[in-house]
Amino acid sequence: MSEASTYPDYDYSYVNATARVALYDDMKSAPRVIKVNPAGTNEFIEQLTTTVYEQSKLAGGKIPYTLIREVSENFIHAQFKEIVVSIFDDGNTVRFADQGPGIREKEKAQEPGFSSAIEPMKDYIRGVGSGFPIVKDYLNDREGSIVIEDNLTSGAVVTISLVKKAKPSRETQDKRQGDIPLPRIPLTEREKSFIMLLQREGELGVTELKDLSGTPVSTTYNTLNKLEEAGLVDKLAGKKRVLSELGYQIAATL
Length: 254
Hints:
This protein is α+β, with helices and mostly antiparallel strands and 254 residues long. It has eight helices and eleven strands. The longest helix is centred in the N-terminal third of the chain and has 18 residues, at 41-58. 35% of the residues are buried.
């Protein structure tokens, strides 16, 4: 799912790698892991897609097979290097990660016609830049989301989700548009990044914030505690965090 091949002599007819599919029942325990073994490229993509789709459905998810297939096919751009697919939110969020070259133009990758596919790939994928746009349009119509990010050291991470983002209340929106001065709250760069992540995702657990920000667990807890004490973050019954009304107002100024 990366932008360009760094291995021009790569044999695209066979995937000589093992993919791992991680199914999270919740974020308090280790995931169950299913391996997808090396195979011919068409067979490998089919096995990977089917495994992810079936596990997502068994968990209660409603993401269609075709969307999972569209994203799975993009692993060919990374020569299927170090594939990890994570399933959570009761099967309604799937995260695809690799350690290929990555995707520089993340916004353009979601528009029709932008493609880095080279000729050997086109025996196995369409290669016309239609995959991510199809996924994006479907999810947007259902208030879902697609997010493309850099992996920790190299590669790309694509997260597709049918979980609707929490929306600020009408009262919050009115406050943003009014002339009420906001309190001065000194924030570190890490605290700002947490606020922006919560604004983008709607609600997040500690583990999700840790993974998205690359912050140690203890630091994640401490940062969240400070934001809660400042009145910028609220804790939900399920222990996930969301921005408070004041948090949304502060986020709009960052």
